[in-house]
Every structure is written in structure tokens, then in C-alpha cells.
Specification:
Blueprint (H helix, E strand, L loop, with lengths): L1 H16 L18 H8 L3 H15 L11 H14 L3 H7 L4 H19 L8 H15 L4 E11 L18 E8 L5 E5 L8 H6 L2 H7 L6 E3 L10 E2 L8 H27 L1 H5 L20
Parallel strand pairs: 1-4, 4-5
Antiparallel strand pairs: 1-2, 2-3
Helix pairs in contact: 3-4, 3-6, 4-6, 5-6, 7-10
């Protein structure tokens, strides 16, 4: 036992002697070296939009440390956007901007938290004149009246959680979050709830959402369109499972042609941000739903 302790002590001493000198990597600004089109292809936002994001979250990303050359907020935001745009391993993301794998992981989590806190109110359900324009936009699609949005859920793959693991296994057999969204006729997300594990049914998420309570309390003059996984109510229309008349068939056709907009919205988002398609495999496991809680409808 004593010999083992001595060997470990000598090993630690040798590591101290052989420790590599600290290297400061170049943190150059890609905004200055890339054309706007190339920049968009890599980070999925235009330079102006990224500067808007940086201005909003810079206070939350400033490093409170005395270390030399902390990573500036701009580079932190670019690391995060590169990760969600590609879904690649954190080491590859860090190499693209000369940051280590560990640093990239910390930055991705920090920027995600900052964006949620600062820009959470940008997702708003239409009311007033905006709601009138949204209804008209949906009516032009297939003639369905008084539609305020199309609703559906999508599975976002995550790593195996350390707590309540079976709750996160969805019907397809992998661990995920079931994210509920509502979209406008222009593919704009107007409501988002991302706090439920993958095994939860769409109807359960809907019944427990803030948006459901708002419709129940009469705060919105209109309806939502959903698939057959949702219950038929006075403010959520679903298709006939077995249409028996021409009127029911026309109703189904109009509803499906309109409701497909939410599926297209999912497709646009997942193609633009590949991490939503392949899953968040490079970040630490969630221990509970609290760590991944986000609901943008107040």
C-alpha cells in the first residue's frame, strides 16, 4: 500500500515537471474574414442579426475573472450558433474558433441560458390587429376561417437523463423532449413549450399549457388546428377520422392543407439548425425537466 502511494506521488511530481506551457489561441473575429453569404452558411444568421444577439446577451456573458484573454461575448455566441447549426462534436466546434472542448461546452450552456433569459419574450401569441392579420393569412391557404395558429409537437433527441430515465423514452424508442409549438401562416413560432419528456402525449402537454388556459378563459377570439392526437374542443379543431360525407371530406382537406404549415415549420427549423434534427448529444445529461424548462406563452 505504501509503495502504491509513493508511485502516485512520484507520478504527480513528474506531471508537474512535464506540464506544458499555457498557449493562448488566436480568437480572431470571423465577421472580419468571411463574406456575408459564407457567414450565414456557417452560423445560420446574418452578421447584423448576430450583433443584435450579442448586444442583448453580452452583459450575461462577460467573464468575471482575472485570467488573461477571456473569450469575448461575440466568440461565445458564434460557438453556440456553430453548435446548433451543425450539431457536431464540441471538439470540432471549438477547433473552428480555436477554443478547447471543455470551454466550448461551458460556452454553449452559458449562451443558451442567456438567450432564454433575454429573448424569451420575443415569442408572442398574436392578439389584436396582429391576430386579425394571422386569421386572414390562414384563410388564404385553404379557406379555413378564424385560425390563430397550427399546433403540434416534435421530438428533440437528448442524452440519457440521470433521473426519471424511462419518462424520456418516446414511442420511437430514443430519449427526447416533446416540444409543443404553434406557428403562424408565415412559419413564425408564436408559442413554444419545451419542458415535457418524450413519453408525454401531445394532448397532455396541451391541456397543461398556459395557452390552453388562455383559450379556456376566453382571451383569444379564434381557433387552433391540430392533428388527431389532440382532443376536439371549441377552440381546437381536429380532422374527422372517418369522414362520411362530402362536407366532412372538404373539411378534412381544408384543415390538413392549413395544418401542414406546422410540419413545414419544424422542417425549416431542423434543416437550419441541425442540432434539432440529430439531437443534443454533446452537452451534459439533464437530471430533471427543470434543466430543460422553457415555455414562452405567459
Amino acid at each position: 500500500m505504501a509503495a502504491m502511494i509513493q508511485r502516485r506521488r512520484r507520478r504527480r511530481q513528474n506531471l508537474l515537471v512535464l506540464r506544458r506551457p499555457r498557449v493562448f489561441r488566436d480568437l480572431s473575429n470571423p465577421l472580419e474574414s468571411l463574406e456575408e453569404e459564407e457567414f450565414f452558411q456557417r452560423y445560420r444568421f446574418s452578421p447584423g442579426s448576430i450583433l443584435y444577439i450579442v448586444n442583448g446577451v453580452s452583459d450575461d456573458l462577460q467573464a468575471d475573472t482575472a485570467r488573461n484573454r477571456p473569450i469575448p461575448p461575440l466568440i461565445q455566441v458564434l460557438l453556440f450558433l456553430r453548435f446548433v447549426a451543425t450539431g457536431a462534436h464540441l471538439r470540432l466546434i471549438g477547433d473552428s474558433l480555436n477554443a478547447s472542448e471543455c470551454t466550448t461546452g461551458r460556452v454553449v450552456k452559458a449562451v443558451a441560458r442567456a438567450i432564454i433569459e433575454v429573448f424569451n419574450n420575443l415569442i408572442k401569441f398574436p392578439v389584436g390587429e396582429i391576430a386579425t392579420k394571422v386569421k386572414e393569412g390562414f384563410r388564404r391557404v385553404a379557406g379555413f376561417p378564424k385560425v390563430l395558429g397550427c399546433i403540434d409537437g416534435t421530438q428533440i433527441r437528448i442524452q440519457t437523463p440521470s433521473l426519471n430515465e424511462p419518462d424520456y423514452v418516446n414511442r420511437k424508442g430514443f430519449h427526447s423532449l416533446n416540444v409543443q409549438m404553434v406557428c403562424s401562416p408565415t412559419f413564425k413560432v408564436t408559442s413554444l413549450c419545451a419542458r415535457w419528456p418524450g413519453s408525454c402525449h401531445d394532448s397532455r402537454i396541451w391541456r397543461n399549457s398556459h395557452l390552453y388556459q388562455q383559450f379556456e378563459n376566453g382571451l383569444h377570439d379564434g381557433i387552433l388546428l391540430g392533428d388527431s392526437g389532440y382532443p376536439l374542443t371549441r377552440h381546437l379543431m381536429t380532422p374527422y377520422l372517418a369522414p362520411a360525407t362530402q362536407s366532412e371530406e372538404r373539411y378534412n382537406a381544408s384543415l390538413c392543407q392549413t395544418r401542414v404549415l406546422i410540419e413545414q415549420t419544424f422542417g425549416i427549423m431542423k434543416r437550419r439548425f441541425q442540432a434539432l434534427q440529430i439531437g443534443f448529444q454533446g452537452i451534459p445529461r439533464p437530471s430533471s425537466t427543470v434543466h430543460y424548462s422553457l415555455c414562452n406563452t405567459p
